[in-house]
Amino acid sequence: MPDALPLAGRPVLLTGAGGDIGRAMMAAFARAGARIAAADIDPARAEAAAAVARDLGVDAIAVPLDVTRSESCREAVAAAVAAFGSLRVLVNNAAALAIRGTVVDLSEADWHSQMAVNLTGPFLMAKHAIPAMRAGGGGVVVNLASQLGHVGQAGLAAYGAAKAGIHNLTRIMAIDHAADGIRVVSLSPGAIEGTRVRSRFPDDDAMRAYNDQRHILGRMGRPDEIASAAVFLASDAASFMTGADLLVDGGYTAW
């Protein structure tokens, strides 16, 4: 992959770097040669993620980040530019764990918290990152969405609405910033094995029994499979892709 999808020396800002998918992305982007700002709301998790990239021989910094706060987003972009001289790739990976409930059951606070992280967060990050990319001659924004932005699932009113919003935000950003040399794409995983999905089930067997049969490949995805797709989207191999969503969902939406 590094030979086919070179990102040598390109500065990348990755949000939600401390999670399962985030750490896998750190490794994948590092193997592709990128320099990476690992951003996470937990500074210790950000540092651990940055260490993954450093261990693979690339420059990486840890950045504390709360994607719900505009000033924190501005500071994260500024830190990446200060460290690397420019910003070429933003990966909006940070996401809040889905809160279940119908529109009747959800509290207004739960609705707003889901939107704040899962939809407003990518907006705020792009708001501050795009001027930096424009100043450097262009770049790529990769927004992590979900297969649940394409299809409905009972009890996920807020999460599903936010992820569907990511899809259209991606399209409109792509239209608005194509002339700046900026591509904007989204990436929609299916259910991915890891702590976030596992937290909703009593054990691994229950997690797989529920999720495996929902994917036509008969299994859940792995974090490294999503990381590989993110590197592809950020690379020149995807240079004619913008305003599009890449489904990496094991056939979840093909039923």
UniProtKB/TrEMBL annotation:
Keyword Oxidoreductase attributed: yes
Any one Gene Ontology molecular-function term assigned to this protein's record: oxidoreductase activity
Key word S-adenosyl-L-methionine present: no
Highest taxon above the source species: Bacteria
Keywords recorded for this protein, A-Z: Oxidoreductase
Transmembrane segments: none
Family, per entry: Belongs to the short-chain dehydrogenases/reductases (SDR) family.
Protein name: NAD(P)-dependent dehydrogenase (Short-subunit alcohol dehydrogenase family)
Source taxonomy: Bacteria, Pseudomonadati, Pseudomonadota, Alphaproteobacteria, Rhodospirillales
